[in-house]
Amino acid sequence: MLPINPQFITDTKGVKLSVVLPIKDFEAIIKELEELDDIKLYDEAIKCTEPSIPIDVAFKMIEENRQK
Q: Are the CB atoms for 8 and 19 separated by under 8 Å?
């Protein structure tokens, strides 16, 4: 788990309204979330049973369709 150092903004009753993070902590959280998203996309791709084609073939097909 990432070590973070949040500060909280509260109302007059002490109810937490917002969080303030150092930019370094925020950027680390964003990086972790992006990596998690990549992992989820990879897991979905592995489960896919549809046939796939190599990326260079896909680019060639796209380019041929664009020229039409």
A: yes
DSSP category for residue 50: S
- Convert 47-56 to b/e letters by CB count within 10 Å (16 or more is b): eeeeeeeeee
User: Regarding predicted confidence, which is higher, 27 or 3?
Assistant: 27
The secondary structure element, H or E, covering residue 17 is: strand 16-20
Q: Contact at 8 Å (CB) between 6 and 16?
A: no
Give the chain's length.
68
What are the backbone dihedrals phi and psi of residue 42, each rounded to the nearest 5 degrees, phi first?
A: -60, -45
**Average pLDDT of the chain to the nearest whole number:** 93
Rounded to the nearest 5°, which phi and psi values hold at 9? Answer: -100, 125
Statement: the pTM of the whole predicted model exceeds 0.70: no
